[in-house]
Write a structure and sequence with these properties.
Elements (H helix, E strand, L loop, with lengths): L4 E2 L12 H5 L3 E5 L3 E3 L6 H5 L12 E5 L2 E6 L1 H9 L4 E8 L3
Parallel strand pairs: 1-3, 3-5, 4-6
Antiparallel strand pairs: 2-6, 4-5
InterPro entries: VapB-like_prob
Protein name: Type II toxin-antitoxin system VapB family antitoxin
Pfam family, one: VapB
Length: 98
């Protein structure tokens, strides 16, 4: 299993962080098997695109809530890491109080 769970939606409260605010959070290493996805559908064009991170943050966005880590943005990057036989990736982790 690549992820802890494949979810569909965000169970945590809205945080309203802008891209600039996400950029203030330093990336840290996260295990893929500890992540719960917030998307159940994958777009293969995005996964296989060479420039998929050109316009976005280089690091996935993860929300820690009630002891769980939710992959909010960066599913394609996480899967690409798994395809390269990596068990961890660097992500920006926002800790929300639950």
């Amino acid at each position: 299993m690549i992820f802890k769970l494949v979810g569909n939606g965000r169970p945590y409260p809205e945080h309203s962080l802008s891209n600039r605010e996400w950029a203030q959070i330093p990336p840290r290493q996260v295990r893929l098997d500890s992540l719960i996805t917030t998307k159940a559908v994958l777009d293969l064009h995005s996964l296989l695109a060479r420039d998929s991170t050109f316009y976005g943050d280089l690091f996935p966005h993860v929300v820690q809530w009630n002891g769980d880590l939710y992959l909010e943005d960066g599913l394609h990057r996480a899967l690409r890491a798994a395809l390269h036989q990596r068990s961890t990736l660097h992500a920006r982790v926002l800790e929300l109080e639950g």
